[in-house]
Design brief:
The structure is a homodimer.
Chain A (H helix, E strand, L loop, with lengths): L14 H15 L5 H8 L3 H13 L3 E4 L4 E4 L1 H13 L1 H17 L2 E8 L2 E8 L14 E3 L5 H6 L3 H8 L14 H14 L2 E4 L6 E9 L5 E10 L8 H23 L3
Helix pairs in contact in A: 1-3, 5-9
The first copy, chain A, binds a DNA duplex through helix 3.
Amino acid sequence: MRASPPKEIEKYRVDAVDAALGVLQLIAEAPDLGLSEITRRSGQSKARVYRLLCSLEASNFISSTAEKRTYRLGLAALAIGNAAERQIDIARIAGPIIAKLGSSTGETVQLRVRDGRNSLCVAGWEPERAVKVLAGIGGSRPMHAGSGVVLLAFQDEAFRETLLSEPLKAFTERTCVDPDRLRQVLANVRSQGFYVSHGEVSPDLISISAPVMGPDGKIIATIHIGAPTGRVSESLLPTLVETVRSAARELSALLAASRNPG
Amino acid sequence: MRASPPKEIEKYRVDAVDAALGVLQLIAEAPDLGLSEITRRSGQSKARVYRLLCSLEASNFISSTAEKRTYRLGLAALAIGNAAERQIDIARIAGPIIAKLGSSTGETVQLRVRDGRNSLCVAGWEPERAVKVLAGIGGSRPMHAGSGVVLLAFQDEAFRETLLSEPLKAFTERTCVDPDRLRQVLANVRSQGFYVSHGEVSPDLISISAPVMGPDGKIIATIHIGAPTGRVSESLLPTLVETVRSAARELSALLAASRNPG
DNA sequence: CCGATTGGTTCGCTAGATGAACCAATGGTT
DNA sequence: AACCATTGGTTCATCTAGCGAACCAATCGG
């Protein structure tokens, strides 16, 4: 069977399916919208959106609240998500390590992977404290800020450059949006093997990230802890960095082991 | 706007979308199958399945392992699932109550709702013990066995009868598959307000379930604890039953409160 | 009381999805 | 090593199924 000639996924896509999945993701991001609003945001025709909604609803991927005629995710979406958690190696294997890192540091932990040009949180852990960072599992954002920087640092140069050549969104005034400075930062991350971010994603938030590498030397994910700046003193930092790095190494090793069964 | 005339969801369904969602669910249940096997199981034509797979993959709902040409759920599925967990009232609100019930009894907890003619686990909790029942979040099975009995007991009579009129699958030799006896059991559950199941779903497993009711008197879910039979002595049972029932009542109240905001 | 907007429905047209047939590559069997 | 069944992937003429414009009745806000 043909091994390498790249199969042409793009040219076989079924338009109706793409549109439906788009609507589904729209509803995931913005629940409780009505037909008209969904139509507007999706840029499709109303009749089409309505039909897609019917199909999605009939399969229980979405459900419409009885009277208000407004849509949100349904039970099938729940089921799919939980199946995904079991099927996706990294989410499953990382679980225990994330929990350990969390309870030993007492701070929120996130595991993020590249999803297209975004950084997506695939697993997380939250401490039982009044003040904490939200884990936001399933959340997605550009990878040029916060722990995403680590993810970006270890991508192919080509990918990095195309991403740097586009306008970069500033989340706070501390977000680095200058390509040249960012290039410097990325080089630093590559040589040091970790990254500490101060208020780049939201003010008063500090995060410490380290890369999870595959046996082929490619990056798989970033693991990081996030804490309110007040809780991370200058003296505490080095210990935390080492704790995060060792968790990242441990996860890298476990993943490598799982790929070569036996 | 028309209030009651039932909108005709069925007749607007888009075939390609239905087929795609079917394939997606197939992959959720049985990951790591190849094109041919998926084609066989879905009963569609190979070309169609291939196109659907392309669309699903392009949107990251599934991903194909590089060389083995085999498919499993992708990152978008994860993201959707986590969004669903946040959007679906019952899954979100039940979280703390489930955890409390779990840690106070030391046994696995499940919250199950009706999904079509099945009972679907929407949330769960597992103890940190060597021997325990699996939570199986996202799992689905017929509702005539185990805690599903409670779900069935409080459905409309019409629904109950149509379900009873069909052949009932026996999971173990203790599963009740006789319509008449089952009718008796259901009546009992309705009058007592709880149900204790011994090895109906799998041997050596006991479960104690109570219904979560809506303000309209309709059933919303069942909450139950599941334990190895050996850990539940005759003398312990009454206390456990009361603990489960009170958790169910608490959840019912919380849900009622959330529906009438303010 | 009115105009704007909502969710839902109809219908004729044709773009686009469809399935049968085909291909090359692979792997187990003899 | 020659075989055959099976795999993942591709093509193309056919015709159906999805399409959007237009429409409807029910609400809502003012």
